[in-house]
Write the structure tokens for this entry.
Amino acid sequence: MPNGMPETNHKHINVPAGKKIYFTSDHHFGLPAKLSSREREALFVKWLDKIRQDAHALFILGDMFDFWYEYKHAVPKGFVRVLGKLVELTGQGIQIYFFVGNHDMWMRDYFTKELDIPVFFDPEIFIIDNQKFLIGHGDGLGPGDKTFKWLKKLFRNPLAQWSYRWLHPDLGLKLAKYLSQRNKLISGNYNFRFRGKEKERLYLYARDFLKKQPDIKYFVFGHRHLPLQIPVGENSIYFNTGDWLTHFTYLEYQNGNLKLKEYSKIQ
């Protein structure tokens, strides 16, 4: 966790003039939705082509896939259009950072080795243009939700991951995909309504975090599938990136300002 980390460990990013940083999350590729997974992948690839013109860095804040599990010599089938485009961006010199979500928490080193994309498993502090960002997926943060937090702890246990790896990939991937889509308790995706900031766990988490580190300017999370911008204290803001299932929203940072934006489905 970022609490107590010395500032020298924080990642520093200085954004060149005319360049931007983008944040996106919760694409859930592989999940049937109003727009099919293939249609949403194509839309996301178009968006990636658009932002490559001025992107300095891209943060992907988890749940890009509705399920992802890496065996030693196998990864889930599909998603080649998105993965290929990410390789193009990193080859162009755009730095990409990936934060695992609750649907892709069993990621290992495939992204790091094959796509040259660093992977983070917990929230991290980044200093962007001398402003502090706390960035993460957001699952399991804040008060309550004890059952999901316990399950997350179980699933992230190395012994549990090692044991699951003994299932044949055809069975293991099929079973995990079924549970990811059907069991809302396991997935953590069971309440996407906004019921006010005092019931918004990530807002409460940000408010409590500020008591320990009052110099955080932006709290940036996904997970909630809701595009949100909520002031925290006098000088901080909690942003949620929304999703690419119904909202097609993302965050854009330039010249010290962070903004919520929507990508039109009609291009």
Remarks:
- The domain at 19-262 is CATH 3.60.21.10 (Purple Acid Phosphatase; chain A, domain 2).
